[in-house]
UniProtKB/TrEMBL annotation, chain A:
Pfam families: Cu-oxidase (PF00394), Cu-oxidase_3 (PF07732). Its main location: periplasm. It comes from the Bacteria. Its cofactor is FAD; Cu(2+); Cu(+). It is found in: Periplasm. This is Copper-containing nitrite reductase. One of its GO terms (molecular function) is nitrite reductase (NO-forming) activity.
UniProtKB/TrEMBL annotation, chain B:
Residues 176-197 are annotated as: Disordered. PANTHER family: FORMYLGLYCINE-GENERATING ENZYME, SULFATASE MODIFYING FACTOR 1, 2. Coiled coil: none annotated. InterPro entries: CTDL_fold (IPR016187), Sulfatase_Mod_Factor_Kinase (IPR051043), SUMF_dom (IPR005532), SUMF_sf (IPR042095). Residues 38-272 form the Sulfatase-modifying factor enzyme-like domain. It comes from Aminobacter niigataensis. This is Formylglycine-generating enzyme required for sulfatase activity.
Amino acid sequence: MLTRREALLGTATGAAAAALLGSVIATPALAQAKVADIAGLPRVSVDLVAPPFAHPHDQIAKGGPKVIEYRMTIKELPMVIDDEGTTLQAMTYEGSMPGPLMIVHEGDYVELTLVNPETNEMPHNIDFHAATGALGGGALTHVNPGEQAVLRWKATRTGTFVYHCAPTGMIPWHVVSGMSGAVMVLPRDGLKDGAGKPLKYDRIFYIGEHDLYVPRDENGKYKKYESLGDSYDETLKVMRGLIPTHVVFNGKVGSLTGDNALKAKVGETVLFVHAQANRDSRPHLIGGHGDHVWEEGKFVNAPAKDLETWFIRGGSAGAALYTFLQPGIYAYVNHNLIEAAELGATAHVMVEGEWDDDLMKQVQAPGPIPTN
Amino acid sequence: MKPGFLLTTALVIPAIALAVYLTRDPAGPAAPPAMASPQTVAIAPGRLAYRLPGEFQTAERPVDAPEDRVRFRRSFDIMAYQVSAADYALCVADGACDQADGAVQHRQNLPATGVSFRDANAYAQWLSHKTGEGWRLPTDEEWAFAAAERFSDEGIDPDGGSDAIARWLARYRSESEAAKGRDPEPKPQGHFGTNSNGLHDVGGNVWEWTTTCYRRVALDRNGRVDTSTDNCGVRVVAGKHRGYMSFFIRDGKSGGCAAGLPPDNLGIRLVRERPSMLSAFKALWRGATG
């Protein structure tokens, strides 16, 4: 059992570090001059969109660098994570797993207002892998319930990057309770293949994968807890076994299948952005491929071509571009198929359009083996 | 998921395992103490027009199964309720049934769930032994006839289109629709009400095993059977929609229907054979010898 008071005390060192770092950053004259420049940049306030979708954005930047303002509210809430009604005491950015995808261009500034409402139990913060310094911003964004903080960081490197919560002493617990998401920093002139040819997409499917660790009771049934603090001790024990009870896309077994299946058309190009903040994954599109894949997610590197499966390192986000060539149902899975079929890491894409017999044809339907 | 992916998995059944199962010694309890016969409903003779189970194709394209007309010349008795978890537990306690994967608490009169085809047969055998009656699983057509208005026809070709991909997408959509708001938590017996024949809980969230084997049929241009292959490692499970499950599967969630939407739960409802001359004689003999 972890009480709110204990949780707050646990962050005391982090808060001290934050105060120190804050004062250091504020001093140098050069930094001050740059800050003055930033004040002259255009500011754009962007509303975040719940996954698996992305907020409206330009693939090729219009004009010069901007300050992109986002606001994220941290929501602690019970979330049902499978179709058996298993409930996770979740911690989330904006109430979704993963947190919303932020898309900016290289040279832009991200200015995030992080809000931790008084109704929450726990202190939180945010570590942007795309940002430089202060633990990715984690040291400057510790917010207790009832507080908010504003962090600005410059997008100096292109690519897809994870962000996650990282409060002192409780980092993994917050991450495997839902607190991770991704940022995509696009090159100002858009995506390109290795030869400099522009690459465009018609839509983004943003997949956040979470490994979850839900304790069971003596009968093997998943336990439900009254509060986050109540769930801490036993959850930590399961976490330390390193075997997740659920591996899910977008917060829930089946969150991207059936009625919620992703939709595309033959000829459309989709950019799959796949974030996993904690554990390795290996996305595979059953029936399709990765035409251009930034496995590590970093656009300055030439994309790999024609991949069957790609590797997402725990703690990173990758991007895969694919143009659908056949209609039908595609399964986008973590190709550890046990995790896909038994633990939940499966999404479906319903693709409409004309079938291409040249690419595939059922020459003979299954039937009895002929005997002479 | 690839078309029929789950089914393909289901079809790759080691035939050996089935053979071993079918030839193993029926392990029944030694002394059969009397047990009250479960409540049944008599299904009167009649006719049934229904869509055949299995997968059908014409000219290499999947099509809806044709409708068949079946005549039931004799009436039969079928359990009014699904076998309860408590009754199934008696079979387990007797050592004649394996522990089910479903609910173990028997409060609230929950139906037995988490049972495979072989569990269902073991239970039928045990119940027959206990009651001195002939109990067995129904065929798919018996089930459809008893289910009456709760039997669901699963045609998905409203426009008669035979484009395999369109069918595939249409099926996915209809299943997604059907899956909305589904609640797989087993409910106490009687929760889903009765049908016109007086059967309780037909088409609730517990599917019922039948003896009918999965069949793949190629029809000729006139709609007549050209070729057909039976696979008895996979049986029809009857419920809200028809499913096809490998005989050893206890939890449809990981087994998969051909349709792709798995049954919420797998359970048992048995048919009682009308006593034959021989069994009637045996019963008389038992009575006479006390």
